[in-house]
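Hi all, long-time lurker, first post. I run a small reading group and we've been trying to get comfortable going from sequence to structure in the token notation. Rather than ask abstract questions, I figured I'd post a concrete chain and ask someone more experienced to write out its structure so we can walk through it together at our next meeting. Sequence below, copied exactly:
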Amino acid sequence: MIEARGLTRTFKSGSRPLEVLKGVELEISAGQFVAVAGPSGSGKTTLLGLLAGLDRPTAGRVIIDGQDLDALTEDERARFRVNRIGFVFQTFHLLPTLTALENVLVPLELAGSGATARASALLDRVGLGDRAHHYPVQLSGGERQRVSLARAFANRPRILFADEPTGNLDRETGARVAALLEQLNRDAGTTLVLVTHDGELAARADRILRLEGGLVVEKERTDAG
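-- Answer (accepted) --
Happy to help. Here is the structure in token form:
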């Protein structure tokens, strides 16, 4: 489902280039739950952005479901993301002027009839059916993250990328969101790639990819794999 070949990403840092990723090679199979771990500054979020097509590598290739992302124009990449990929972020990225239901409906705006029913069903699934008409400011952090999960699954994405989805939540709420994320992933058969500092969340994954100094230096299967 996902391949990275010789993936390198260099940024300008003053007068010197900063090489964050240094030729990453990896393969992720369809339906796998993969956690990307490693110390701060190791390139986890940079890698996630490249795999998701949000950024372009300095060198190397990202291939998703047989499609080389570098061969696509920016418009084609945007359409590819809309049709195939879902996102969950640490800071939720909900639109403050829309209700929970309306936020979930955003990716479904071209879906036509049935969109509202699907959005409502997803909110029910994440336990927020009774909060559908509340605005983000009226929701707790855990509730906002659950809305973002419902939104991420709205278009039935084949791949879900999550960047520190429990990072802004307390331990108990984070554990509930992690369990929900795993359940949605399993039930939908979606490939899940998740960046986290949370060892307990990483332990839920089928595989852990560890980044240090811009390289995948360790690959291990957990007991869940």
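A couple of things your group might point at:
The longest helix spans residues 171-188.
The mean pLDDT is 87.
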